[in-house]
Write the structure tokens for this entry.
Amino acid sequence: MQLGNVASLAHFIPELLLSGSVVVLILLEMVTDNRAAAGIVAMAASIVTFLLVLAGGTGSTFLFNGMIVFDSFAFFFRLLIILATMVAVWMSIGSEEVKRCDQGEYYAVLLAASLGMFLMAEADNLLMAYLSLELVSLTSYILTGFLKHNRRSQEAALKYLIYGGVASGTMIYGMSWIFGIAGSLDFGIINGALTQSGTGASLGVFIALVLILAGMGYKVASVPFHMWAPDVYTGAPIPITTFLAVGSKAAGFALLTRFFYPAISRLAANGNWQTLAGVDWPQLLLFICMITMTLGNLAALQQTNMKRLLAYSSIAQAGYALMGFVVLSNDGIRAMMFYLIAYYVMDAGAFLVVMIVANATGSEEIDAYRGLAWRGGLVPAIALAIFLFSLTGIPLTVGFIGKFYLFAAVIRGQFYILALVGIINSVISLYYYLRPIRTMFLDQPTGEEGVVAAEAWNYGLMGVLAAATIVLGLYWAPVIAFADRSLKFFTGPA
């Protein structure tokens, strides 16, 4: 079913609320000096949006004359994105960095970025895909450089802008090729045109996909489109680093999957996905996947800054998630979706502990964690150890379950070399994830690091994320069932 502009509004209420909240926050900045009010409004808007997404449930409808699609897949990523927004807002309220910023503008841009991520997950048209990705990119540049008097933040924003501009231009050039070949911007029509005899085998389609991959790969920070991530993650305020690492990456995978699966591939009668004749994009993504996880892990080995270490870790984690993407099966996509939930829990928790330590010591270096467990920081030290063990894939954590499903899908698809590379990289990652844990528990403090005092606001969220990391590692059935139910793309009538 395809709805017109007015009828579509009934399914678009969460997005309308985010849009209205952006306006309210800007007006609030103009009429009041209460710096805490903006954070409260942003948190309330995020919670209400989350409840509206839940209440709206799933459906199978094209909205706004086919520009976006309302289906189970979009429902999954809308929930994940708004949860990432809630964590970012919560962290921002407790961040010493953000407290020095213009609060109304900051939260307005943050919610605008969330709106763009919603649209990326729902896009069913190349024009909407490009506009939504640009909305996320432009707001991300602003948020990265929001620490106006911090040179590192300004430098990160400039680099982000340059890399993003090149990736965006390359992507839209590839989209113009697809439009010229298929004669349409709608994913469904593109699929129909490219599956016609002879059309799908053209070299032009493959070149177009490579160009488009530059923009989408840049959003998930896969090699070779990853260059921006270490500097941006290091220079941005820690809540924004978390938001980009979790929310932006989830939106990027949503758009990547929706384009490369329902639009460029076809679902066979046996339930497996098949590529178009002559357009073997999974082989290209296979090499990108292996290089991404390897480069991310090797580069993280020599990092001494926790944010930069987690930045390279984020690149490696994108490589792990791509393992599920390249096997071209529903098992792989389901494993990827589950792993994105696991990544949300453990990575958000790790960055939260980094923020807690930075609030107390003013430092993000690993040396600031020396003897953390013995100078008032036992609780965050234990929590960070849980998150880092989970990122490694140690049993009894949600990270282990996520990697189990990924490796199972890869082996079932007979991608044995990919599985071997993934296992080797998991072993490599153990070294740099254990280094902060050793520093926190085994190294003696010098007395210059400072005492980490308990913060009820941040400790509450940290406890929830740490508990989720363990609980979902022991009882994950509801989450994998949710991912399974969400793996339904609405492509319209046959």
The first helix runs from residue 5 to 8. The chain has a mean pLDDT of 87.
